[in-house]
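Marked as duplicate of an earlier ticket. Keeping the data here for the record.
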Amino acid sequence: MLDLERLSECITWIDLSFVERRRTPGWAIQVGIRCHLAGMSLRDASQFLDELGVKRSHVAVHEWVHKADLQPISTVTADQLAVDEKMIRLNGQDHWLYGAVDPQTNEICHVSLFPTTTKQTTRWFLDELHRRYQLDDVLFLVDDANYLGPVLAEDGYRFQMIPHGNR
């Protein structure tokens, strides 16, 4: 069902520079993306566009959302999230993988990969996570990672350090 509260928030312009072919009018792409972001299924967004006279498949709407690098906002029902960072090696280069997991269900909520780890990359990850899940009252469970604890403390998040345990 469509979540009308999401539509009442400040509407920012969606950058359509990813569009290569101009088969679909820009306003229709915007409407399709916004309908999906507001909670419509991809098929419903496609059918809505059809009612407006623009025939596009649900796959096309999915591609627009994916290429615009936007996803529907979800709300985590858990009151805790385990967050960690891990250095991994890809093609001989070090990268840092940040992840957030619901400790009750072990569901991976969000992951991001960065070429380095700093306070700023940690903030970027937390901003992405907060934007996607609206984490106002969530308690973050973290280990003694270099930047997670200090950034969470500096930015006013609730968190608990669990150095070697079940996070």
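See parent ticket for discussion. The chain has six helices and five strands.
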